[in-house]
C-alpha cells in the first residue's frame, strides 16, 4: 500500500466495520479524512516568473522569513511556492518534519545550490558533503563524522576552542581598560566574526590566525568580507539559474565568483601550511581536524580540501550570528543571565578539568542556545526530497518533491511553543515532548556536519563571557531581522559589558 493510499472499508478492523454497519450516521466521524491530491495544496501564485518579479520589486528576498510566515498564516500549515526556477512544498509543524525524516532514506538530499556547483565546475574544484549527494556524499560523510561530529572527535578539539574563548575575554578586558568608565559599550558584530574565524580555523587547521590581536592580518579581514559577499549574492542566485544570471546581472555573478575564489584562496593557504608540516613528519600530536584526516588517509587530498574549505566558509557567520542574538537576549533578560552564571559557577566548582564534562553540567546554557536558535534560526528552512510519496497535512506529496520545513515560522508559532514570544531557555529542560522542535542544525544523517564544532564554540564562548562580564543593553525592543541566506540583524545591537570583580 503506497504512502498516499487510504484505508478502504474492506480492510477496516472488525470493530470499526461493525460500528459502520450499525451506525451509518457515524461514518463521517469515524472515517479518516480523504487524502487530497498534490494539485489541491494551496498555492501562493501560479506564475513562477511573475512571482519572481514580485520578489525583486518588493525586495522580498531579505524578508523571506516574514513572507513565509505570512503565507502560513494566510494559506494554512502547508502551501506550494513557485518562484522562478524554484518550486517547493512548505510546511512548519514538527509532525511534518518527522514525516519527512521517515522518508529520506540512506541518501538524504537537500536543495542543491546551483551557483556554488557552477563555481566548483568553473574552477575545477571538488565538492564537499554540503553539495554532494548519493553514495559519494555518504562515503565522505561517514569518514568526516569520526573527526568532526562524534563525541570522541569533539573532545579532541575542545581545548583549541577553549583557548580562543579565553583569549577573546582577555581582548574584551583590554578594551574595557581603555575606557575610563570601567565598562565597554560596543557593537560586537565584527568582533564576533573575528572570534568565530579564529576559533574554527584553530580547530580545523591547528594554527592561529592572530585575529584577536590589535592589528589583525588584512587577508583574514578579506576572507570575512568574502564570506559575507558570498552569502549575500547566493540568495538571489537560488531562484535564477547561473547561466541566466550571467546574462541578467553579470556584476552580481562576478561578485559571487570572486568571493568564492577568495574563500578558496584563504583555505588553500591554511591547508598548504598544515600539509607541509604533515609531509615533514613532525612529532605526532593532535593538530586539528585536517591533520587527523590526513593521518587517516581514508579521503583523497582533494576531498579533504573541499570539505575543510566548506567547513571554513560555513563556520563564520553561522556561528557569529547566534552568539550575537544570544548576547542580546541575555542582556534584556537579566534573570536568565544570572541563572546561567550561577550554573557556570556550580559546574566549575565541581573541579573537573575535562571540558566535555563541564559543558555537560550546563543544561541551562545549552537551553539558551536552543532558545536563541528557535527565535533566530541561522537557516530559515530545512530541505528534503522524500524518496517515496508522503502525506503532509492530509495532502499527497509525490516522491522527489522539494519540501521545506519553515524553522522561523515553527519557532514563533503558538501552535508549537507556549508563549513563543518569550525567551525561556527552561522550556528545553522539562519533560514535554520536544521532538523535531530543535532543528536549527537539521535532522537525521544529513544534519549539519559542523554542528558539534559550532555548539561547542558557542557554549565555551558564553561560559567565559558570562563568568567575566555582566551584559546590558539600552534598547529592549525586538531586533529587526533580514535574511541574507542566513538570518541577521538589520542593525546590530549595542551591548554594554561590565567586568565582574
Automatic annotation (TrEMBL):
Alphabetically ordered keywords of this record: Heme, Iron, Membrane, Metal-binding, Mitochondrion, Monooxygenase, Oxidoreductase, Steroidogenesis, Transit peptide
Cofactor dependence: heme
| Single GO term (MF) | corticosterone 18-monooxygenase activity
Q: InterPro entries in the record, alphabetically? A: CYP11_CYP27_families, Cyt_P450, Cyt_P450_CS, Cyt_P450_E_grp-I, Cyt_P450_sf
Q: Which PROSITE patterns match?
A: CYTOCHROME_P450 (PS00086)
Q: Pfam family example for this protein?
A: p450
Q: Name one GO cellular component term.
A: mitochondrial inner membrane
The record's subcellular location field reads: Mitochondrion membrane
**UniProt keyword annotation of Transit peptide present:** yes
One GO BP annotation of this record:
glucocorticoid biosynthetic process
Kindly give the Gene3D superfamilies that the UniProt entry links to this protein: Cytochrome P450
UniProt-listed Enzyme Commission number(s): 1.14.15.4
Chain residues that bind heme: 448
What the entry lists under PANTHER family is as follows:
CYTOCHROME P450 (PTHR24279), CYTOCHROME P450 11B2, MITOCHONDRIAL (PTHR24279:SF1)
Which family does this protein fall into? Answer: Belongs to the cytochrome P450 family.
Name of this protein: steroid 11beta-monooxygenase
Q: Which organism is it from?
A: Pantherophis guttatus (Corn snake)
